[in-house]
Amino acid sequence: MTRPPLHHHLVVNTGKCLYNSALYRAYSSHPPSARLNVPIDYATTPILHHTSKSALSNPELSTEARNGTASRQNLFQAVNSALSHALSSDPSVLLFGEDVAFGGVFRCSMNLASEFGSDRVFNTPLSEQGIVGFAIGAAMEGAKAIAEVQFADYVYPAFDQLVNEAAKVRFRAGTNEGQTCGGLVVRMPTGGVGHGALTHTLSEDADTAVDYYASYHSQSPESLFTHIPGLRVILPRSPAQAKGLLLAAIACPDPCIFLEPKILYRAAVEQVPTEPYTLPISTAEVLKQGTDVTIVSYGAPLYTCSAAIEKAEKDFGCSVELIDLRTIYPWDRQAVMGSVNKTGRAIVVHESMVNAGVGAEVAATIQEGCFLKLEAPVQRVAGWTTHMGLIYERFNIPDVARVYDAIRVALNY
Amino acid sequence: MSVTMVNRLGIARAIATLAPLQTRNYATHATGHGRQRRLNTPPDFSKSSLLHQTPQTFSNTPGLPRGGASSRLNLCQAINSALRTALSESNEVLCFGEDVAFGGVFRCTLDLQSQFGDARVFNTPITEQGIVGAAIGMAAEGAKPVVEIQFADYVFPAFDQIVNEACKFRYREGHTGANLGGMVIRMPSGGVGHGALYHTQSPESLFSHIPGVKVVIPRSPSQAKGLLLASILKAKDPVIFMEPKILYRAAVEEVPDELYTLPLDKAEIVKQGADLTIVSYGRPLYTCMQAIAAAEKELGGRTIELIDLRTIYPWDRETVLESVSRTGRAMVVHESMVNYGVGSEVAATIQEQAFLILKAPIKRLGGWTTHTGLAWEKFIFPDVARIYDGIKELMAF
Q1: Using CB atoms, which residue from B205, B361, B370 is nearest to A367?
Q2: Tens of pLDDT along B288-332?
Q3: Domain ranges of chain A
Q4: pLDDT for res B24
Q5: Does B26 touch chain A (CB under 8 A)?
Q6: What CATH number belongs to A52-196+214-273?
Q7: Disulfide-capable partner of B52 in A52, A365, A413, B254 (CB 3.0 to 4.6 Å)?
Q8: If contacts are CB pairs under 8 Å, which of residues 142-171 in chain B contact chain A?
Q9: Nearest chain B CA: its distance from A363 CA (Å)
Q10: Which domain holds residue B213?
Q11: Is omega for the bond preceding B314 within 30 degrees of 0, making it cis?
Q12: B192 domain residue, yes or no
């Protein structure tokens, strides 16, 4: 294997991927003297539990979980752990989707087919409409059907099934109490990953360092499932959160959409309690107390917010409260409004486009409920109103500088 | 006599004992005990100032041609007129969908196939995904396909085509400049009184998140004709054209005969006012007018401004913000659910831009966060009383 010269940074067709080699990164991840927009350091971010003591002291955990042990897992391992718990504890749990049997394109279903059998963990054809339609039917017959849609961008063929069927089953059933599809959970990787982009230009060689994904691998459609009521939309921020929220979603008597930020599958590593546990759905969590500004966010942008808050608090001498919505719909209005009534300033941060996104609903509700306490308008820092071009992801998704600026604007209004 | 004949006679007798056709045995509004409904009375479209009862009022609406011939048309006839005009105007225009050939379930495509032939006006199988997918392909090849989705509730199978293909087409094309301009997806939307879960939905806000299509909702026949012609003949982007189905027959007005277009990027102030801005679109505008009429009588001279968004996305921020900067109070009214609806985006934007001017929080009046059960429509959609209450609440804040 010959090492290509430094200026040939992209195509490395040698069978060995030099993409991640620290020595060898010949492209820049951030401008040389960047102060704010430096890559997130997941190893030190306060959002993740870096010690088992910290992981096990979460007051939302059950006693068993808190008295147990914790192990270091990334997001896909935590999801895998949750799925394994669910499959082993409840024979009505099924797990299926495209490529699920071999372990899944993100490894979330590793070893589950071999352990629980192909009657319960199996592949489906390439048909999201069929996957979800089948899942709804199975859930209506009493199964806990966990359907995987391979990327959130692909969920749209299943939109009719989700919005016109799953969301309406219980309403339609009227007084027939048993008739629900509450056992339905639709899981999907969501969000930007750095190379998701727009059009799929496949490459034969999987080790080629040329980015070949597309804008069909970066979307975050959470707000589209929030308008037509009937589904719970959940988005965890970390491995430990994902495990608890996924187990809660599986147990939840309502159909749930569980979006997993794909960039965190490997990046977010923390101590996760070994015992099974659930976390409350439709409850937001205050990650950091503060008195001057409230930032509301969910998923991967929380890490960006945390980095921005750290810098802003140092530079402006302020105190910022950070809230993780966790469940996008129905969302925890009380927690958010309680916080804004305290701070008087609010910012909503999310990856998906700002127009008609989660920020719109949160901002509209905050101004309704906290009108007289607001010292500044509720700002929405979100993806710009455009599609996610391959090379433009880092300009589109809110970065640390944008959140930092929003904090400054809120303070100085 | 056979059993069947006895049954038939019995049924006939039973029917005969029912009140004759002239008597309506149910009430459309409360009349019992001598109490008259004060607010929630059915709108009288023949007197509504939102409709042009005579051609003389055309000059009140910017963009309408004046002085030419006009005809009294309802909404489906106006759509029909627009489609006919577009099909005559350009050979690239096609019109297809389920049941379009015989005239359409709402008569919007009446006589089009006989006039323009079945190569241009034709039926499709029952496949919304296929209808829209085919339209996208045709538009990519330069045609102007005007497709019909039979009810807005049925558009969801086409969601992937719209959101992942149509919306992204021009972006993907980059420098080539190719686009899907001229593609229009028409659909009847909104409550109609008996639509229930699957014939009542108004999914406009779902198409406002992922950019790339325009979403247009006309309030009246004359608006529909102009906006539809603009969508087909002038737009450089695909348009989702949602027609409030309850207005198909109910809204009747004078409509200019000639070809005219209305701008797809401007909201319209349909009633001037100084103290409160109400933003709405489609059928709820009529409800708002009723509420405004009732409320203004009791507001001691204060007046309410009513804005028709017309294009829900991209929406005319300037007009709305300019209005709120004068009035200081705002309300958004729409039929679809209030959660994550158009009202959220409008309210969030107004409070961002007009924060210091606002004298009261922006009120969102939408359908309640539930599905529209058959018997519950009139409780779910904002009615005159709710809007009236909202007005009083904002004025007193």
Answers
A1: B361
A2: 999 999 999 999 999 999 999 999 999 999 999 999 999 999 999
A3: 52-196+214-273, 283-412
A4: 58
A5: no
A6: 3.40.50.970
A7: B254
A8: 153, 156-157, 159-160, 163-164, 167-168, 171
A9: 5
A10: 55-256
A11: yes
A12: yes
